[in-house]
Specification:
By secondary structure, the chain is an alpha+beta fold. Among the domains are: 153 residues, no CATH class; 100 residues, no CATH class. The chain is built from 15 helices and nine strands. β7 and β8 form a beta hairpin. α3 packs across α12, α5 crosses α12 and α6 packs parallel to α12.
Length: 410
């Protein structure tokens, strides 16, 4: 069996976590003091177990421990020297900082960013485009303040919001910040001021903050968003619409937006009215870029839908409805672990020639997570890989004195 190119001496799960550099994990753990007072359950072990939770879709600590017990004879291949106890696991989720998991995610992202780039994007403007949005996850306890009014009966649920930025050329977050669900989105705009000059960022009108828009302009960062329905602005110069422009472009003009305590400050922007025939709807875009065509501005905002698809992908394949801890740190660790699992599977898919939908990839690997099979050959030809291994075992036992043991490995 050792000569079979479809067989691997390591489980699929172990081949997946090889994207994580153990030496980087040790550096990050040392930076945050994550190994202080730790006897056995190291940071790397913690990451492996949390990835096991995300990939298997477990809902409770009891399920996690039972899942590990069922694979106790394979844990050494994952770098786990012992089976963690429930109390130790729960304590680690509460005590070890979630920032450790965030830094590990960013370390893997930076190390493999070149594998994530979409080679189909040829437009130089789209290659420097960033997309920003947030998604909210409900909590059963009011750990973090949820949105909306307090109910007349019962208790109000809490909520955590993940503010996320992705590159249009990729499909994984390159920046994530967490806050209580009740916190307004525009507070996150300050986090993106470290973008390189000439970058383009698009977001919905929930992030309205004219003061930050002005800072973007001063730093040569171009934004594209929608104008709020109740926005008050002063129309200045109207631009001519070229004869070859998209028929959906109705108006292109310069406007002045006022902000400040007494509305004494001014921000120069550009308003584009665009009729979308596909959705039979009028959009009003604003941007601080006066060079790009009106059609390109509309296209840039349309690309914002990419991040909505990412949120849908995460919530469908790593549903965060049940958390393993009732504290903010444990919740953030579990979200970071889901993000890391999504990143690892995205990297794996990028190295396979066969086209896989993300959901099919997750469901297939979830079934084979602890199987000893070459994951790359398996994903190229799932049925053929297993047939070859079964055939190899059949040949091995055909002259056996104990033919009833044929196929015992399965």
């Amino acid at each position: 069996m050792g000569k079979n190119i479809n067989f691997s001496g390591q489980p699929v799960f172990n081949q997946l976590i090889k994207f994580i550099d153990k030496s980087e994990v040790r550096k990050i753990a040392k930076k945050h003091g994550a190994e202080r007072y730790v006897k056995k359950f190291s940071t790397f072990n913690h990451v492996v177990v949390m990835l096991f939770v995300a990939l298997e879709g477990y809902h409770s600590i009891r399920e996690v421990i039972l899942g590990l017990l069922a694979n106790a004879h394979k844990l050494s291949h994952l770098g786990l020297s012992y089976l963690v106890r429930r109390s130790t696991f729960a304590e680690a989720n509460q005590r070890r900082s979630s920032k450790v998991f965030g830094d590990i995610y960013m370390s893997v992202y930076r190390s493999h960013a070149s594998d994530l780039a979409d080679s189909r994007l040829t437009d130089s403007d789209l290659k420097r485009l960033y997309i920003m949005d947030s998604t909210t996850m409900s909590l059963f306890k009011d750990i973090l303040k949820g949105v909306g009014r307090n109910p007349k009966e019962g208790k109000k649920k809490g909520g955590i919001k993940a503010h996320t930025i992705i590159k249009a050329s990729e499909n994984v977050p390159c920046l994530i910040r967490y806050s209580e669900a009740a916190r307004h989105d525009h507070m996150f705009l300050k986090e993106v001021l470290n973008l390189a000059a000439g970058s383009i960022i698009t977001f919905d009108k929930g992030y309205v903050d004219y003061a930050q828009y002005q800072v973007f302009s001063e730093n040569s960062i171009w934004y594209v968003t929608r104008l709020k329905d109740n926005a008050i602005y002063e129309a200045r110069k109207e631009f001519d619409i070229p004869d070859n422009a998209d028929s959906g472009v109705l108006k292109d003009e310069e406007i002045i937006l006022s902000f400040g305590d007494k509305k004494e400050l001014r921000h120069r922007s550009r308003r584009i009215a665009y009729w979308d025939n596909e959705n039979n709807r009028l959009f009003e875009f604003i941007t601080n870029n006066f060079e790009l065509s009106a059609e390109k501005i509309a296209l840039i905002y349309k690309k914002r839908w990419q991040i909505e698809l990412l949120f849908k992908q995460l919530k469908q394949n790593f549903p965060l409805k049940y958390f393993l801890g009732d504290n903010e740190n444990a919740i953030e660790i579990q979200i970071w672990s889901a993000m890391l699992a999504n990143l690892l599977l995205t990297l794996l898919r990028s190295k396979v020639k066969r086209s896989w939908s993300f959901s099919n990839l997750v469901s297939t690997l979830r079934q084979q997570l602890m199987s000893y099979i070459n994951v790359y050959r398996f994903l190229e030809d799932p049925e053929g890989s297993w047939r070859e291994i079964v055939k190899e075992n059949t040949m091995e036992y055909q002259n056996s004195l104990f033919p009833e043991m044929e196929g015992a490995y399965f």
